[in-house]
Amino acid sequence: MNVTVTSFGYLHGEPPAAHLTVDLRHHFRDPHVSPELRHMTAHDSEVRQAVLRTPGIPALIDAVSDAVVAYRHGPGGQDVEVAVGCAGGRHRAGVVAAAIRTALADEGVPATVVHRDLDKPVIDR
Q1: Model confidence, pTM
Q2: How many structural domains does the chain have?
Q3: Phi and psi (nearest 5°) for 100?
Q4: Who contacts 110 (Cβ-Cβ below 8 Å, separation ≥6)?
Q5: What is the 3-state secondary structure (H, E, C) of the chain?
Q6: Which end of the chain has less neighbouring CB within 10 Å, N or C?
Q7: What residue numbers bound the domain in which 23 lies?
Q8: Is 35 a member of any domain?
Q9: 123 located within any domain
Q10: Is 124 among the domain residues?
Q11: Rounded Cα gap, residues 77 and 73, in angstroms
């Protein structure tokens, strides 16, 4: 049974099909508003630190990891798809998707991360 966590940006199109979709847009501060972080991505340590230090994010990562483990224990025996979205897909979604993969690895669950929109241009808004 495979687990795939896809990060994406709502401003780049519809969310990917998933068993569990996490929308980060309205509840968690967007690093895009900081000029020094705007053109960075989840690959940059400054962005990772900013996102992971956001109140609520660590608990959300743990909750999603727990949900994936629950899906895997269900009788379906199918792959599990998780979609994590933010506005542009370059900051919050990418960091959280990678952190979910790490949390799952800590539980002995291998997962693959796909960043659908991480390398797309910054959307001015």
Answers
A1: 0.95
A2: 1
A3: -65, -45
A4: 3, 104
A5: CCEEEEEEEHHHCCCCCCCEEEECCCCCCCHHHCHHHHCCCCCCHHHHHHHHCCCCHHHHHHHHHHHHHHHHHCCCCCCEEEEEEECCCCCHHHHHHHHHHHHHHHCCCCCEEEECCCCCCCCCC
A6: C
A7: 3-115
A8: yes
A9: no
A10: no
A11: 8
